[in-house]
Amino acid sequence: MVHTPSLQHRLPNEGAHIHAPWRSETAKQAIAQSEALCRAKGARLTPIRRRVLEVLLASPKPLGAYDLVDRLGSQGRRMAPITVYRALDFLIEHGLAHRLASRNAYLASSDVSTGRQTTAFLICESCGEATEITSPAVADTVLKVLKEQGYQPRARALEITGRCAGCQDIH
Ligand SMILES: [Zn+2]
Protein backbone atom coordinates (compact mmCIF):
# COMPACT_ATOMS: atom_id res chain seq x y z
CA MET A 1 0.00 0.00 0.00
CA VAL A 2 1.25 3.39 -0.89
CA HIS A 3 1.51 5.73 2.01
CA THR A 4 0.29 9.22 1.35
CA PRO A 5 0.79 12.07 3.80
CA SER A 6 -2.40 12.71 5.74
CA LEU A 7 -4.50 15.69 4.81
CA GLN A 8 -3.91 18.68 6.97
CA HIS A 9 -6.64 20.68 8.52
CA ARG A 10 -7.58 23.65 6.52
CA LEU A 11 -7.27 27.01 8.13
CA PRO A 12 -10.54 28.68 9.04
CA ASN A 13 -11.71 31.01 6.31
CA GLU A 14 -14.76 32.43 7.98
CA GLY A 15 -13.09 35.67 9.05
CA ALA A 16 -15.12 38.55 7.69
CA HIS A 17 -12.29 40.99 7.33
CA ILE A 18 -9.41 40.39 5.00
CA HIS A 19 -6.50 42.73 5.08
CA ALA A 20 -4.96 43.87 1.84
CA PRO A 21 -3.05 41.03 0.23
CA TRP A 22 0.30 41.58 -1.38
CA ARG A 23 -0.13 43.90 -4.28
CA SER A 24 1.01 42.30 -7.52
CA GLU A 25 3.75 44.89 -7.93
CA THR A 26 5.17 44.02 -4.50
CA ALA A 27 4.90 40.31 -5.31
CA LYS A 28 6.73 40.81 -8.59
CA GLN A 29 9.45 42.66 -6.77
CA ALA A 30 9.69 39.93 -4.13
CA ILE A 31 10.05 37.28 -6.85
CA ALA A 32 12.83 39.26 -8.53
CA GLN A 33 14.61 39.70 -5.20
CA SER A 34 14.19 36.02 -4.38
CA GLU A 35 15.65 35.05 -7.75
CA ALA A 36 18.65 37.30 -7.18
CA LEU A 37 19.11 35.87 -3.68
CA CYS A 38 19.06 32.29 -5.01
CA ARG A 39 21.46 33.15 -7.81
CA ALA A 40 23.88 34.68 -5.30
CA LYS A 41 23.79 31.44 -3.30
CA GLY A 42 24.19 29.23 -6.36
CA ALA A 43 20.67 27.88 -5.88
CA ARG A 44 17.96 27.81 -8.51
CA LEU A 45 14.44 29.10 -8.21
CA THR A 46 12.98 26.47 -10.54
CA PRO A 47 9.58 27.11 -12.17
CA ILE A 48 7.83 24.94 -9.54
CA ARG A 49 9.55 26.65 -6.60
CA ARG A 50 8.71 29.99 -8.16
CA ARG A 51 5.04 29.01 -8.60
CA VAL A 52 4.79 27.95 -4.95
CA LEU A 53 6.35 31.23 -3.86
CA GLU A 54 3.97 33.20 -6.12
CA VAL A 55 0.93 31.48 -4.59
CA LEU A 56 2.23 32.18 -1.07
CA LEU A 57 2.86 35.82 -1.97
CA ALA A 58 -0.65 36.19 -3.35
CA SER A 59 -2.29 34.87 -0.21
CA PRO A 60 -3.07 37.24 2.66
CA LYS A 61 -3.14 34.25 5.02
CA PRO A 62 -0.80 31.34 5.70
CA LEU A 63 -1.64 28.32 3.55
CA GLY A 64 -1.61 24.65 4.42
CA ALA A 65 0.29 22.35 2.07
CA TYR A 66 -2.97 21.00 0.65
CA ASP A 67 -4.34 24.49 0.07
CA LEU A 68 -1.22 24.99 -2.01
CA VAL A 69 -1.77 21.73 -3.89
CA ASP A 70 -5.31 22.89 -4.72
CA ARG A 71 -4.17 26.30 -5.92
CA LEU A 72 -1.22 25.03 -7.92
CA GLY A 73 -3.18 22.64 -10.07
CA SER A 74 -3.90 23.77 -13.60
CA GLN A 75 -6.13 22.41 -16.36
CA GLY A 76 -7.49 19.75 -14.03
CA ARG A 77 -4.04 18.44 -13.22
CA ARG A 78 -3.09 18.19 -9.60
CA MET A 79 0.44 18.83 -8.46
CA ALA A 80 1.86 15.99 -6.35
CA PRO A 81 1.98 16.90 -2.65
CA ILE A 82 5.57 15.67 -2.40
CA THR A 83 6.56 18.18 -5.12
CA VAL A 84 4.94 20.97 -3.13
CA TYR A 85 6.64 19.84 0.09
CA ARG A 86 10.03 19.76 -1.64
CA ALA A 87 9.51 23.24 -3.04
CA LEU A 88 8.48 24.48 0.42
CA ASP A 89 11.58 22.92 1.99
CA PHE A 90 13.71 24.78 -0.52
CA LEU A 91 11.94 28.10 0.09
CA ILE A 92 12.27 27.74 3.87
CA GLU A 93 15.92 26.69 3.67
CA HIS A 94 16.68 29.83 1.68
CA GLY A 95 14.67 32.15 3.91
CA LEU A 96 12.02 32.81 1.27
CA ALA A 97 9.17 31.29 3.24
CA HIS A 98 8.27 30.49 6.83
CA ARG A 99 6.47 27.53 8.30
CA LEU A 100 4.13 28.25 11.17
CA ALA A 101 4.46 25.19 13.39
CA SER A 102 1.36 26.04 15.42
CA ARG A 103 -0.84 26.03 12.30
CA ASN A 104 1.12 23.71 10.06
CA ALA A 105 0.91 26.40 7.42
CA TYR A 106 3.27 28.34 5.23
CA LEU A 107 3.69 31.94 4.24
CA ALA A 108 6.06 33.94 2.09
CA SER A 109 8.80 35.69 3.97
CA SER A 110 8.70 39.45 3.96
CA ASP A 111 12.38 39.48 4.98
CA VAL A 112 13.35 39.32 1.32
CA SER A 113 11.61 42.54 0.35
CA THR A 114 11.95 44.46 3.62
CA GLY A 115 15.45 43.28 4.50
CA ARG A 116 14.30 43.03 8.12
CA GLN A 117 14.31 39.72 9.86
CA THR A 118 10.98 38.63 11.27
CA THR A 119 10.97 38.37 15.05
CA ALA A 120 7.51 37.01 15.68
CA PHE A 121 4.22 36.05 14.08
CA LEU A 122 1.02 37.13 15.76
CA ILE A 123 -1.42 34.45 14.65
CA CYS A 124 -5.14 35.07 14.95
CA GLU A 125 -7.07 31.94 15.95
CA SER A 126 -10.26 33.49 14.67
CA CYS A 127 -9.48 34.71 11.14
CA GLY A 128 -6.27 32.78 10.60
CA GLU A 129 -4.24 35.81 9.70
CA ALA A 130 -0.57 35.95 10.65
CA THR A 131 1.03 39.34 11.21
CA GLU A 132 4.80 39.54 11.06
CA ILE A 133 6.50 41.80 13.51
CA THR A 134 10.09 42.94 13.59
CA SER A 135 11.76 43.83 16.85
CA PRO A 136 15.56 43.81 17.07
CA ALA A 137 15.30 44.35 20.85
CA VAL A 138 13.16 41.22 21.31
CA ALA A 139 15.27 39.23 18.85
CA ASP A 140 18.48 40.16 20.71
CA THR A 141 16.98 39.23 24.07
CA VAL A 142 15.73 35.86 22.80
CA LEU A 143 19.12 35.13 21.23
CA LYS A 144 20.84 36.00 24.51
CA VAL A 145 18.57 33.66 26.48
CA LEU A 146 19.11 30.85 23.96
CA LYS A 147 22.85 31.33 24.20
CA GLU A 148 22.73 31.12 27.99
CA GLN A 149 20.81 27.85 27.64
CA GLY A 150 23.26 26.51 25.07
CA TYR A 151 20.27 26.02 22.80
CA GLN A 152 20.47 25.86 19.04
CA PRO A 153 17.28 27.20 17.46
CA ARG A 154 16.02 25.90 14.13
CA ALA A 155 13.16 28.31 13.55
CA ARG A 156 14.00 31.98 13.79
CA ALA A 157 10.60 33.43 14.60
CA LEU A 158 8.36 33.19 17.63
CA GLU A 159 4.73 32.30 17.23
CA ILE A 160 2.15 33.98 19.41
CA THR A 161 -1.46 32.86 19.08
CA GLY A 162 -4.57 34.75 20.12
CA ARG A 163 -6.96 37.22 18.54
CA CYS A 164 -6.09 40.07 16.22
CA ALA A 165 -7.43 43.57 16.88
CA GLY A 166 -10.11 43.14 14.22
CA CYS A 167 -11.46 39.91 15.72
CA GLN A 168 -11.62 40.99 19.33
CA ASP A 169 -15.05 42.53 19.05
CA ILE A 170 -16.57 39.83 16.85
CA HIS A 171 -18.42 37.09 18.79
ZN1 LIG B 1 -8.37 37.95 13.35
TrEMBL record:
Q: Which domain of life is it from?
A: Bacteria
**One Pfam family from the UniProt entry?**
FUR
Cofactor remark: Binds 1 zinc ion per subunit.
The cofactors required by this protein are: Zn(2+)
Which residues are recorded as binding Zn(2+)?
124, 127, 164, 167
Mind listing the GO molecular function terms for this protein? Answer: DNA-binding transcription factor activity; transcription cis-regulatory region binding; zinc ion binding
Which key words are in the record? Answer: DNA-binding, Metal-binding, Repressor, Transcription, Transcription regulation, Zinc
SUPFAM superfamilies, per the entry: Winged helix' DNA-binding domain (SSF46785)
One GO cellular component term of this record is: cytosol
GO biological process terms held by the UniProt record: negative regulation of DNA-templated transcription; regulation of secondary metabolite biosynthetic process
Q: Which family does it belong to?
A: Belongs to the Fur family.
Q: What is this protein called?
A: Transcriptional repressor
Organism name:
Microvirga aerilata
